[in-house]
Amino acid sequence: MTKPLYFLLLLTLLLTPLLHADEPTLEEYLFQYDYAARWDMKITSRELVGLLQQDKVQFVDIRFAEEHATWRMGFGLHIPLPDLPRQLHRLDPDKLVVTACPLKDRAIIAMTYLKTKGFNVKYLSDGMLGLAEYLRGDMALELTDILPPGDASDHLESFGICPG
Length: 164
Known about the structure:
This protein is α/β, with parallel strands linked by helices. It contains eight helices and five strands, in the order αααβαβαββαβαα. The protein has helices at about 5-20, 25-30, 35-40, 45-55, 65-70, 105-115, 125-135, 150-160, and strands spanning about 40-45, 55-60, 75-80, 95-100, 120-125. Strands 1-5-4-2-3 form a five-stranded parallel β-sheet. β4, α6 and β5 (about 120-125) form a beta-alpha-beta unit. The longest helix has 17 residues, at about 5-20. It is globular. The N and C termini lie far apart (about 75 Å). The model is unreliable at about 150-164 (pLDDT under 50).
């Protein structure tokens, strides 16, 4: 190996950990895992809605495309779990990221992965089914101001509300 290549390789090996210092490895995350971390990794639908209203959170639906095409919340990002590593640029590093799926299995996987990438992240503890239950009836009206632009009645219908 030539000296310039050897130097470049050595420099890369030395600087790589410094560039990713805020990204714990899975092993480091597990070594630090305790009861507080167990509590801190979760968020309820009630807490999520409050943070959505304050624009302090980014909701990420990590279900497969077929599931998302069948039903969705009407807000947040859709990034299927297998695409998450290629879609990190879509996430806002300045906000709390909340991962969600119908129950919580894939959301926990996504949360753990994002934690190792340095994101402030939680998973929706009651899942998207719990969120849909929480948003029944007039509770859905709490989120109408954060919905994307368009006909408000279209968005209300996605919550099961059919205006006049």
